[in-house]
Amino acid sequence: MTDANWESLSNQTVAVAGLVYFLALLVHLAEWASLRQPKVDRELVAAGAASAQDPSAEERVSERGAERIAFLGRLGILLTLIAGAAHFVSLVGRGMAADPNRVPWGNMYEFTLSGTFVVTLLYVALYRKFNLSWMGPIVVGFVVTVLMVAVIWLHDEVAPLSESLNSPWLVIHVVSAVIATGTFTLGGIASVMYLVRERSERRAAAADRDLGGWIARVPSLPALDRLAYRVHAFAFPVWTFAVLITGPIWAHEAWSRYWNWDPKEVWAFITWVVYACYLHARATAGWKGRRAAMLALVGVATLWFNFIGINYFSTSSQHSYAVERVVDGAVVHIRI
């Protein structure tokens, strides 16, 4: 296949991935919507069954509702797997389309593709271990939204890497940064859902009613708190490796200095400090629950501002270019 064919394949498969992700989102939302139906059906059937002396009718309706929910859950995760496979092919196509072939992390569009793929990969990998079926609509909705933004506003043609990026440290540094970014994002989702469920429980308690609807499917507050802590505890050393070890080494190789006070370096360190405070507060001060969730959201906000905001608001960052283009016979750097 030619480079043009590989690039065309990448563009086509990312479109397929986005479409299948969207279908998976619809299925997951239908699954959430179905969580309310069995309760209504049971009430209606119970009223009729009482007069008909048929107590088994309510059980049959309940079983059908549970089967419908289980089917939608399986279909949703299957569609997510198919979309993830197409997503992976699009990444491979971007790398193979370059001459010479390279890793698909040459610009912001490619990094966005990689980051969203890692979010999907981690969700699928941890799906059974942590029973993450409740997270499906949130993860898929996040991925399809970011992919849409990437395709519409960030898309760029494949081009050779700039001289500073053409290094083995690109693979080591970016792989660790992408893994940490995806993992922190999952931790942020768990923290958001902790706050949502906590608020719902307070309202239910004030109204003297049981927690119902889709929110009842979300794990308990202690389980969400524990999940968020475990995910952040895994991501933090990976981020440390990316920001404080491989990043400075690569900076020294490219710019002869380990630390340049570059805006992206500074914000990466700020993110590291926030998450260090999060883990330290949990380990020593006993921070759990709402306070820990709020601090985790501060961390994910700094993370994504570093990823997106710096590229658009900073005019001095040495990380604001990634590809080289020939314009009127001169080689110029294109911001990402």
Walk me through the structure:
There is one protein chain. By secondary structure, the protein is mainly α. It has two domains: 1-80; 101-335, no CATH class. It contains nine helices and two strands, in the order H-H-H-H-H-H-H-H-H-E-E. The chain has helices at 3-34, 37-52, 56-97, 108-125, 136-154, 168-206, 221-255, 263-285, 289-313; strands at residues 321-327, 330-335.
Question: How would the blueprint of this fold be written?
Answer:
Elements: H1 3-34, H2 37-52, H3 56-97, H4 108-125, H5 136-154, H6 168-206, H7 221-255, H8 263-285, H9 289-313, E1 321-327, E2 330-335
Helix pairs in contact: 1-3, 1-5, 2-3, 3-4, 4-5, 4-6, 6-7, 6-9, 7-8, 7-9, 8-9
The gist of it:
By secondary structure, the protein is mainly alpha-helical. The protein folds into two domains: 1-80; 101-335, no CATH class.
Determine the N-to-C terminus distance: 27 Å
Number of domains: 2
Number of strands: 2
Read across the widest sheet, the strand sequence of neighbours is 1-2
Task: Throw out a few tags for this protein.
about 325 residues; two-stranded antiparallel ribbon; mainly alpha
